[in-house]
Specification:
It is a single chain. The protein has 398 residues and is of the alpha+beta class. It contains 13 helices and 7 strands.
Length: 398
């Protein structure tokens, strides 16, 4: 009785009845076999939503290339495993429709016969089973109660059959491509949010270092300088210890300035990536040619990452390749942004032998880009990075 009060068995009955109706055109298209793939595509699209009647989530659809009707792109449909699985699902749908029809013919007929038994004597008829004849309404009430039990059994059987059919359909016509596409989109959004949060946290650390310890240490150095003037006249024997403390404070200031500069140089913040790369080239012991439009600006995260990549590449070239010339090129290309780094060293760069190139790859991945490294032994090293055009700031142009 609890089952009859729930929605599941009744929606499963709707699922089974609609399946029988959909089986009618299926038989027609089986006779017209060349048109069967088109009907299989349409029936699968219906089935992906119809399984919600039995409590399942809708089945993920096909990949983008196969969402168009098959008659518009027959080769793609016939070449895909999903297309043939949809045809197999259509044939299996017909088998389930036959089983459902059999269940309804026997189960529903018996249920209705038993439930209507009390009404037959009211119209002058008798309920007859073989030689057993009942012509009084009160005597047929137990038969009607039996009809309720048979109805529950029928609904149980229909629910079980519908669940098995829907699970089979999910296996045959389900495609994880669309589900994976949704996951990729979600992860891409989360990755962008992570990069933005990291960039905001880095700016906060820069600000805190500049406004906090650096200011306090600078104030302490100033006070020590004033104190040194007084002690120099009164107690000159204390000057060596005072000078030592002052030197330690100066070294601490230098360390903080170096840390802040390593996070993100001031020139990068104020003047942009082109100026920061030019400054990097000026500080390099080997010639570095920079070809970057100074007007072109990118997002904060992109500029910080590209500057770090360039710094890492230059450091690797100086340390490992013996390069005599380094070239850094950045510009807009069709479909995105191209960042090209090249040196004329000895090559042989291998990400498996160090963390520098692995770090570069991770930074490029966070920016949703691709990186290609060409570094033959004894030849030049070229790192080509392609990034999406949405890293360009609004209003910036090449």
């Amino acid at each position: 009785m609890r089952l009859l009060a729930r929605a599941a068995p009744w929606t499963a009955a709707v699922y089974g009845f609609s399946g029988m109706l959909l089986a009618l055109p299926t038989m027609m298209f089986i006779a017209l076999f060349p048109l069967l793939p088109g009907w299989a595509w349409l029936l699968s699209a219906i089935e992906r939503q119809r399984v919600r009647l039995v409590g399942h989530e809708s089945i993920p659809g096909p990949p983008t290339a196969l969402r168009i009707p098959p008659w518009r792109h027959v080769p793609a449909r016939l070449a895909s495993a999903l297309g043939w699985r949809e045809i197999a699902g259509t044939l299996l749908h017909l088998i389930f429709a036959v089983l459902t029809f059999t269940l309804w013919m026997f189960g529903l007929t018996l249920t209705l016969t038993l439930l209507l038994a009390p009404f037959l004597p009211l119209f002058g008829s008798a309920f007859t089973v073989g030689d057993w004849r009942i012509d009084h309404p009160a005597a047929t009430i137990p038969i009607a109660l039996l009809g309720i039990v048979v109805l529950a059994v029928f609904l149980y059987a229909q629910l079980a059959l519908a669940v098995v059919q829907s699970m089979t359909a999910r296996v045959l016509i389900g495609s994880r491509v669309e589900e994976l596409e949704q996951q990729v989109t979600t992860l891409a959004g989360e990755r962008v949010a992570l990069v933005d949060a990291f960039e905001a946290e880095r700016r906060r650390i820069e600000r805190d270092l500049h406004d906090g310890p650096q200011q306090h240490l600078a104030g302490a150095a100033l006070h020590l300088g004033l104190l040194r003037t007084r002690i120099e006249e009164e107690q000159p024997d204390l000057l060596p210890g005072l000078d030592s403390a002052h030197d330690e404070i100066e070294r601490a200031l230098d360390a903080i300035r170096a840390a802040v500069s390593g996070l993100r140089p001031r020139v990068l913040i104020e003047k942009g990536l082109a100026a920061a790369l030019s400054d990097l080239a000026d500080r390099s012991p080997v010639p570095v040619r920079v070809d970057v439009d100074p007007v072109l600006r990118f997002s904060d995260a992109a500029e910080a990452s590209l500057y770090s990549i360039a710094t890492e590449f230059v450091a690797n070239s100086l340390k490992h390749s013996g390069a005599r010339q380094i070239t850094i090129t950045l510009g807009i290309v069709p479909g995105g942004v191209r960042f090209l780094l090249n040196d004329d060293g000895n090559g042989g760069a291998d990400p498996a032998r160090g963390t520098g190139l692995i770090g570069i790859t991770h930074r490029v991945t966070l920016l949703r880009g691709t990186a290609e490294l060409d570094s033959p032994i004894g030849g030049h090293t070229t790192l080509s990075i392609t990034l999406p055009s949405d890293i360009i700031r609004t209003g910036a142009h090449a």
